[in-house]
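Subject: Sanity check before I submit

Could someone independently write out the structure tokens for this chain? I want to compare against mine line by line before I put it in a report. The sequence has 90 residues.
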Amino acid sequence: MTLTFSAALVVGALLLACGMFTAAWRRGPGAGLAALPMLAAGAAISAAGAGRFAAPRDAGTGQELAALILVAGLAAAILGAAWFHKGEAR
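---
Independent answer below. Compare away.
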């Protein structure tokens, strides 16, 4: 199966839209952090697709940036959740 540039951007845009909907739907500021990994995944898929088609000889171009975006989004969600739950008793 070959991936087209438009398919990568459409899937990335759908994940970004779902992440924005999740962030807007959640009422509490801490609950909105659940959308960060989905937003990061959408941005990572778009970046990987753009990188793959920007340099067609090297298929791995853009995957490094996608992995970095995913790790940063997950780290932000973990740190945000820890910050919001800092004052709660266990």
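---
OP: Matches mine. For the report I'm noting this point. The radius of gyration is 16 Å.
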